[in-house]
Every structure is written in C-alpha cells, then in structure tokens.
C-alpha cells in the first residue's frame, strides 16, 4: 500500500528546490522557509538524504546542501526509498500474505496502484519534474 510520510514529502520537495538551485548550496533555513516547514524536522531529513548519498552538505558561511549528482540522474524513487524505504510488497490491509476470505475485496486495485506509483517514481527524475513546472 502506498504511504508517503511527511519526511518523504519534505525530502521530495527539498530535492526539487536543490535541483532548481543548479548546484548552488541552499541552507536549511532557506529551504524550510520556502516550503514553510519546521527547520528541525527538515534538518533531520536532509541528514538522512546526505547519509544516503543523494545530497552533500557544506558547513560554514555560504554553506548548505546541494545535490550529489545531476538532477537527471536522481529518480524520485531513490529519494522516496532513502526516507521511507522500499515500497511494501504486501497489499493486504490486514497484513496477511494471502486473503483469509478467499479473495481481496479490492481485487487487484491495491497491487496495481502500488506498482503504478513505483513505476511513476522510478520513471521520473528530479530534472523531469523541475522541467514540467515552475516551482520558483
């Protein structure tokens, strides 16, 4: 089942801003102000992205975070997985591997939705998303 945590949402939005910045570091404060979120929470998210190798941090005046690779080489799925982990393969709302009632009341909807979501994230890079809209 698809779940997008607040942390993953912050990561995706932050990464879009970093992609727009074209390798110029952005401070935690600047990103937090731009997307109107808690600096403390955002800082933890950016640290996780740094540990996963998606961003690099620079300390000191003029420092901040920047993408570690070109935006065209970073998929939305990589960002999502760095924060929330892999998408779950179970689609049962009760967490069972097989429906105990003989068939899921949702049919294949949950499996198809999860697969479609994963394909969308995997098939789009940060550059694709930045190109599609004006996020400035």
Outline the structure in words.
The protein is mostly helical and 136 residues long. It has one domain: Arc Repressor Mutant, subunit A. Helix content is 49%, strand content 6%. It has 6 helices and 2 strands; from the N terminus they run αααββααα. It has helices at 6-20, 28-35, 39-51, 76-84, 109-122, 126-132, and strands at 55-58, 64-67. It has a two-stranded antiparallel ribbon with strand order 1-2. A hairpin with a 5-residue loop joins β1 and β2 (64-67). 22% of the residues are buried.
Features:
136 residues; mainly alpha; Arc Repressor Mutant, subunit A; 2 strands
Summary of the model, kept short:
This protein is mainly alpha-helical and 136 residues long. It contains six helices and two strands.
CATH topology: Arc Repressor Mutant, subunit A
In percent terms, what proportion of residues is strand?
5-15%
What is the CATH-assigned architecture?
A: Orthogonal Bundle
Low-confidence stretches: none
Q: Which structural category do the helix and sheet elements fall into?
A: mainly alpha
Name the average pLDDT.
90
- CA radius of gyration is 17 Å
Present the secondary structure layout:
Layout: H1 6-20, H2 28-35, H3 39-51, E1 55-58, E2 64-67, H4 76-84, H5 109-122, H6 126-132
Antiparallel strand pairs: 1-2
């Amino acid at each position: 089942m698809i779940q997008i945590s607040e942390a993953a949402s912050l990561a995706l939005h932050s990464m879009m801003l970093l992609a727009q910045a074209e390798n110029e570091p952005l401070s935690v404060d600047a990103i937090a102000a731009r997307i109107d979120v808690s600096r403390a929470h955002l800082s933890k998210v950016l640290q996780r992205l740094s540990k996963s190798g998606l961003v690099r941090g620079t300390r000191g005046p003029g420092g901040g975070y920047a993408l570690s690779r070109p935006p065209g080489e970073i998929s939305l799925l990589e960002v999502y997985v760095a924060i929330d982990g892999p998408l779950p393969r179970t689609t049962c709302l009760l967490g069972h591997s097989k429906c105990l009632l003989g068939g899921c009341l949702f049919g294949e909807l949950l499996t198809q939705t999860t697969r479609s979501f994963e394909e969308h994230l995997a098939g789009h890079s940060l550059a694709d998303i930045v190109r599609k809209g004006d996020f400035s």
